[in-house]
Specification:
With 347 residues, this protein is an alpha/beta fold. The protein contains 9 helices and 15 strands. It is globular and about 70 Å long.
Length: 347
């Protein structure tokens, strides 16, 4: 019996080109009818994965913090609830969500920083001090100033708006594996325990000055150890996070491939992410090993025209995993016309 994943990402809304939750659900339901009529049909989703960037977020100094951010998260939470209602019979344990870089509260992250002293700025070895994933230093090009994360507890509150929404969404949920909203990873046991999906936050040390994606090394290890404690070993491990691995050479907002190496070594064979605003699929093989992982990126479901790459439309993926857990079909659905999704490609 096959297993189907609806993979959505980047649901942030642009003020210049908005789309409402009602419009989205209507378009997705219409497309569900088209998918069922295909030969062979695309089965209805068993789970939904939302791989980050739920909200647009706020620029520093916008003057709208935190009221506007609260409105954005309310809209995002409503979308998640509607997706569960219309596609999963209301079962929220089958909807898996992770945060993206837009979901980081920049204003709160900045409150945990302080300008470096003149002596400190002279002594810090740049740029190496900025390249270290766990470095407390940040450089602001706009201010031409070095900052230091002074209050780490205050800095880590940058994820509080997302985690508060996460806690509300999964409140009082009875799941096979307990969900902890305060943790940067969670596990979802689905398909009768045959599949486990690990949801990782790739926003570790990501903030208003550091755009690179990062998954805390211990998070992958902790999730792996928890999987090994399950009473029955799953047939397939899927991981999801937000940041992609590659892009324009002058950008610096990608995930370190070391995280993927660690996932492959732990037995993960499928990785679902967003961030690029375009759909993509690529194999990731470990050098000197037969172990590999298929990386699947979902295009943006809600980005405006100015945020989409040239030639791209609003996208989402349907992934049909064969009962053998050894192969899958990827169906990319795009909004090439106003308001409606249709087939883009199949792989």
């Amino acid at each position: 019996m096959s297993f189907t994943v609806m993979h959505l990402s980047d649901t942030h809304r642009a003020k210049a080109d908005p789309i409402s939750n009602k419009e989205l659900i209507s378009a997705l339901l219409s497309d569900r009818g088209r998918q069922a009529a295909l030969s062979p049909p695309i089965p209805p989703p068993d789970i939904i994965v939302v791989s980050g960037d739920l909200v647009q977020g706020l620029q520093l100094g916008s003057g709208l913090h935190p009221t506007e951010l609260e409105k954005q998260y309310a809209e995002a939470e409503e979308l998640l609830s509607l997706l569960a209602k219309h596609f999963l019979d209301g079962d929220r344990s089958r909807l898996i969500v992770v945060p993206g870089n837009h979901d980081v509260d920049w204003a709160v992250a900045r409150m945990g920083m302080t300008p470096a002293t003149a002596n400190e700025q002279e002594e810090v070895k740049l740029p190496s001090a900025l390249q270290d994933a766990d470095s407390p230093y940040r450089w602001s090009w706009q201010e031409r100033k070095l900052f230091r994360i002074e209050d780490n507890a205050a800095y880590e509150n940058k994820m509080q708006p997302y985690r508060a929404m996460h806690a509300r969404f999964y409140d009082k949920l009875t799941a096979a594996i307990p969900i902890e909203s305060s943790r940067d990873w969670n596990l979802f046991s689905v398909h009768g325990g045959r599949i486990v999906v690990a949801a990782f936050e790739s926003t570790h040390r990501n903030d208003c000055y550091r755009f690179a994606g990062s998954i805390r090394k211990e998070a992958i290890a902790e999730a792996h150890l928890a999987i090994r404690q399950l009473p029955t070993a799953p047939d397939l491990l899927i991981a999801t996070w937000h940041h992609g691995l590659q892009g324009d050479p002058d950008h610096n907002d990608y995930l370190d491939t070391g995280a993927i190496h660690r996932m492959v070594d732990c037995g993960f064979r499928v990785g679902l992410h967003g961030h690029h605003h375009r759909s993509m699929v690529a194999p990731f093989a470990m050098f000197g090993s037969e172990e590999s992982m298929v990386l699947i990126g979902a295009g943006s479901l809600c980005a405006g025209n100015r945020e989409l790459p040239t030639g791209s439309f609003r996208h989402y993926n349907m992934i049909v995993v064969d009962d053998s857990m050894a192969s899958a079909r990827l169906h990319v659905r795009h909004m090439a016309s106003e308001g409606g999704f249709s087939a883009a490609t199949v792989a």
